[in-house]
TrEMBL record:
Protein location: Cell outer membrane
Matching PANTHER family: PLUG DOMAIN-CONTAINING PROTEIN, TONB-DEPENDENT RECEPTOR-LIKE BETA-BARREL DOMAIN-CONTAINING PROTEIN
Protein name in UniProt: TonB-dependent receptor
InterPro entries the UniProt entry points to: Beta-barrel_TonB_sf, OMP_b-brl_3
Organism per entry: Chryseobacterium pennipullorum
Pfam families: OMP_b-brl_3
Domain Outer membrane protein beta-barrel residues, every copy: 286-729
Nucleotide-binding found in the keyword field: no
């Protein structure tokens, strides 16, 4: 009997054990499904898109993958936006990319999506990130594998817009023992065609200009990154990137009308070329087994842009004021930047993370603008518009972050960045300025995991926006002799205060509420300033004309000057509702978002700080008043449909629409864009045919009017419809681990070139 009981007990125990194992397997199976389905989720201060688990991440490139990532969009195929408004700064493996914006986009378009593990979207970056204003960060995390070998990608693309624009590129990656590296090369040519309609005036007169611009470009770029593992804890790396762009024989041809009468024709011929070289030396040492490490960088950046133009105006009627005029202009810019930084990341056994660092940037810009005007058949220097501007800037930054998990559901991150800026600007022989200012930029992030299906977070950040270096160069770019853009060396840095509340439901639906305050705001675009210049009248030989009493005869000319300058403050309240979800066993993948914003701009421009009238001249500037309240709505709808069970045919249908958006310089008209793509994967080959902006509706129309009746309207039709065919070939070991991407010490400066 005891034996039977014992046998029964053993049998029952076996059943229980088997059942437990079965139940355990069920639990593991359920967990695995949950992990696979969490394609988009909230983690700390960022939203993570698990590319490896996404059905759309096969056979495409990183740029197209980013456009399909929740919260990220691109209308023009050249830039990336976060939540439809914030500029995106690209990081790779937590290291900021070390190249200019155009080269970066080409690199992303040539990087296979299969190399990407996940994409992190940081809408409000912490103190450790080198960003300005309300810029967000996209951190691309590459797959890791320690296999030795090599791989690469070759890509050719032909794009048909108004003109045909071919391009090609290749990238190569290798890993052998302690050495790893990657290199890339890109080349192409494109001609940009733009059609302009400009009109301005007031109730008493009107000016209109109609014309077009053809801007041919040839470019070549590339770089390399070499990484050497000194030991299991130490690494040394060197990176180099370059880009050359040549734009010769760019022609702007415009006919000008006054009060309905054709007066003259302006033709501007321009040759320009840009060279950009950057170097970065990186050293990293791991200080413990918890992940603590010390990182240091030394960087050098050299940027050179040469631009020479010849502008001439031909009279088309016999009015006395309407005569032939011409000018030569040379606008070179040279930027030298030296930078260094040291970061120390400390992790503790309690789960705390400390990050502290120091950075230094020294920048020297040289802008020697020369301008000649035609007088009596000869070109003589225009003293008023010839200037040699030297700008020097030194920035010392200190930053500290502390991050920890407070409870099982609550985690937080707090930090601050302290920046000391010392800068001088000298227009040699004319004027100059000195600016010394300090900024304390706090940061706070709180994340509350209410429930596995509900997550809530709050973030606060303070940043500044320094003017871009080309904005400081006091030179002009002419549409007509009286209609031109004017850079401003006296523009001040703007202060940004950003707050954000983010809610996520089931890792698929999200709501983002943000509020931004800007002090000492400068216009996001140029402000149109109208006025008059009264000066002695001159004859065809440049001699002043006098009346019978011996007084010079005075002549008044109206002008329209586009300038970027500080005007006051603005406030922005924005709500974004979005969804990222797959349907029908991942056959149909959707990424939808709607953004609603309410913005106020308030301030005025009462004088032009760049204006230096010559003796005998009197300039009167009409006040430019900014008092704008605007509600706007935009929507992004991305669809990817798998057309075959073999997962080798994909259809993409994307649509963007935006209502009218009021800005400081006027109201941008409604825009929309319908994009269609068809992708075929054939082994290591991928062929993509795309049509962007099928109906030519994403161009810019700006309408602006002042309380006194002065108006300024601009239509820039850039032929946005593009038809392209691209072929990509991936070769070598596709499981190769990428070389360590390195952060450059002068990253913050690159975005200002």
């Amino acid at each position: 009997m005891k034996t039977q009981i014992l046998i029964a007990a053993i049998f029952f125990s076996g059943l229980v054990t088997a059942q437990q194992k079965k139940d355990s397997l069920k639990v593991h199976s359920i967990d695995a499904i949950n992990i696979r389905k969490q394609v988009f989720k909230k983690q700390g201060d960022r939203l993570v898109y698990d590319v490896a688990s996404s059905p759309i991440a096969k056979g495409t490139n990183t740029f197209n993958l980013l456009k399909q990532t929740p919260m990220i969009s691109s209308i023009d195929g050249k830039t990336l936006k976060i939540l439809g408004k914030s500029d995106a700064i690209i990081y790779i493996n937590n290291k900021k990319t070390n190249m200019d914006s155009e080269a970066l986009i080409e690199m992303l378009k040539s990087t296979p999506s299969e190399d990407i593990q996940k994409i992190e979207v940081i809408t409000v970056p912490g103190s450790e990130f080198q960003v300005e204003s309300k810029e967000g960060v996209i951190n691309i995390v590459m797959k890791k594998n320690k296999n030795n070998g090599y791989n690469g990608t070759m890509k050719m693309q032909n794009e048909q817009g108004y003109y045909n624009n071919p391009s090609a590129g290749a990238s190569f990656n290798f890993r052998q023992g302690k050495w790893s590296g990657n290199s890339n090369i890109r080349m192409g040519s494109w001609t940009e065609r733009q059609k302009y309609t400009l009109s301005n005036g007031d109730p008493t007169f009107r000016n209109e200009s109609y014309g077009s611009n053809d801007d041919p470009n040839k470019n070549f770029g590339g770089g390399f990154n070499i990484d050497y593992e000194i030991s299991a804890k130490q690494s040394l790396g060197l990176s180099y990137n370059m880009r050359y762009n040549k734009s010769f024989n760019s022609i702007l041809d415009i006919n000008n009308w006054q009060d309905g009468v054709l007066t003259n024709q302006t033709v501007n011929y321009e040759n320009a070329q840009t060279r950009n070289h950057s170097f970065n030396l990186n050293y990293e040492i791991k200080t413990d087994s918890l992940g603590s490490k010390l990182t240091s960088n030394v960087s050098y950046l050299w940027f050179n842009r040469d631009k020479a133009s010849f502008n001439e105006t031909f009279p088309l009627n016999n009015k006395p004021k309407n005569k032939y005029s011409a000018l030569h202009q040379s606008v070179p810019q040279i930027i030298n930047n030296y930078a260094a930084n040291i970061d120390y990341l400390k992790k503790t056994a309690k789960g705390e993370t400390w990050l502290m660092g120091i950075s230094y940037n020294r920048t020297h810009t040289d802008n020697d603008t020369q301008q000649d005007k035609l007088v009596n058949g000869e070109f003589i220097p225009n003293i008023n518009q010839t200037n040699h501007f030297i700008y020097k800037e030194n920035i010392l930054g200190l930053y500290l972050n502390y991050e920890r998990k407070l409870t099982e559901k609550l985690s937080g991150k707090i930090g601050a960045r302290y920046e000391m800026t010392r800068s001088t600007g000298d227009i040699l022989g004319k004027t100059g300025f000195e600016r010394n200012y300090n900024n304390l930029l706090p940061y706070l992030n709180l994340n509350y995991a209410i429930h596995p299906d509900h997550n809530l977070s709050y973030t606060f950040s303070s940043r500044i926006r320094r003017p871009r270096f080309w904005e400081l160069n006091p030179s002009r770019t002419y549409f007509t002799p009286t209609n031109y853009t004017q850079n401003n060396p006296f523009i001040l840095a703007s202060k940004f205060y950003n707050q954000e509340l983010n809610y996520m439901y089931k890792n698929a639906f999200y709501a983002n509420l943000s509020f931004n305050i800007v002090e000492d705001a400068s216009a996001s675009d140029l402000l149109p300033l109208q006025g008059t210049v009264t000066a002695p009248k001159k004859d065809d030989e440049g001699t002043i004309i006098y009346d019978e009493d011996g007084n010079p005869v005075m002549e008044t000319t109206k002008f329209l000057r586009y300038i970027r300058t500080n005007y006051g403050k603005n406030r922005e309240l924005s709500l974004t509702l979005g969804m990222n979800k797959s349907w029908f066993e991942d056959i149909w993948t959707t990424n939808y978002s709607v953004n609603m914003g309410y913005v106020t701009y308030k301030g005025a421009v009462l004088e032009d700080p760049t204006s230096i009238p010559t003796p005998g001249e009197t300039e009167v500037l009409e006040p430019y008043i900014i008092d704008i309240k605007n509600f706007n709505v935009s929507a992004t709808i991305n669809n990817t449909v798998r057309l075959s069970s073999k997962k080798d045919w994909f259809l993409g249908v994307n649509y963007f629409i935006s209502s009218k958006v009021a800005m400081e310089g006027g109201t941008i008209g409604a825009r929309q864009s319908l994009d269609i793509s068809l992708k075929k994967i054939i082994g290591d080959w991928t062929v993509i045919a795309e049509v962007n902006d099928l109906f030519n509706q994403s161009f810019y129309r700006v309408r602006g009017i002042q309380p006194n009746g002065q108006y300024n309207n601009i239509t820039n039709f850039n032929y946005p419809r593009l038809i392209s065919i691209g072929v990509t070939y991936n070769f070598g070991n596709q499981k190769l681990k990428k070389a360590r991407e390195m952060k450059s010490a002068n990253d913050a400066v690159k975005s200002r070139t």
